[in-house]
Amino acid sequence: MSEEEIKDRITQLLKKRGKMFIKDIARELTASPATISKYLGILNAEGKVSKSEQRPYIYWQLKHK
Question: What is the model's pLDDT at position 47?
């Protein structure tokens, strides 16, 4: 799977489900949490996703425009 495909799958999943944990995204996309973390970092740098911390949890979601 290409980098763009992974990023697209993550954004589609977040669009469908809303806030999610890295481990739940990883399980849903059958990828490792490290891989998902990497691509969430890229999507965050691109301004497409954001994270919210509700200690001890970190949720990821699509950024609202």
Answer: 96
